[in-house]
Write a structure and sequence with these properties.
This protein is of the alpha/beta class. It contains eight helices and ten strands. The chain has a ten-stranded mixed beta sheet with strand order 1-9-10-8-2-7-3-4-5-6, sandwiched between helices. The protein is globular and about 55 Å long.
Amino acid sequence: MQQLLPEAKPDLSNADLDALYGWPNWPSPQPWVRANMVSTIDGAAASPDGLSEGISSPADRRVFGRLRGLADAVLVGAGTVRSEGYRPARIKPDFADRRAAAGQGIVPAIAVVSRSLDLDLSLPLYTEPAVRTIVVTCAAADPTLIDAAREICDVEVCGDESVDLSVAVAALHHRGLSRIHSEGGPRLLADLVAAEVLDELLLTFSPTVAGGSFPNGADVPRILAGISNPSGLRAVRLHHLLEEDSILFASYRFRPLPEQNL
């Protein structure tokens, strides 16, 4: 893997990737929310089977692993948990010392966003995590389901009729989970943009094209779907660009990094 921008640099090591994707000027009084998505070059978020694996690659999975290792919390929608078969975050020895020195948990906490609480609480994600899974929901959810989730998870009730992601980010920050890494899916990513809480968007561009629809008749899912962006087009700034085997890894920032808390 090589760096193209802001300057050319060949053969990036894992330490190089950690420096590129790390949070400098930390600790900070503000949380930092980034999202990571893989996409075809025309914006499709999945292959014809509906999963992201078909447009992923070993290089994409390498970056994915480094990003998880640097995060305090992984924010993910319940639909993505179901479709992608999410499991608990694994303990990675090569991150152990770094995480301990930074005061982080042994793995990032997985925070699952769900208004309906249509969750299979028998899954290992909820029953076997190294760090207790967090369920983010709203007051309109069934109280019985909230109580059931509380039996094995931490629950944050954020918002009334729907999940208020600005409240959710503040709740995670209050828990000391300030480096928040979202893995989608497209609806959650659109909600983060609409709520104006997304600070950084990381896009892996798979050198493939989906077209207008898949041969099986399925719609092509885009990397953002659902709620509209109230501000219309929103300008972002390219922070860095990497490449391996025609796969591009771009970091776009919505605002500068927060100032150091002195």
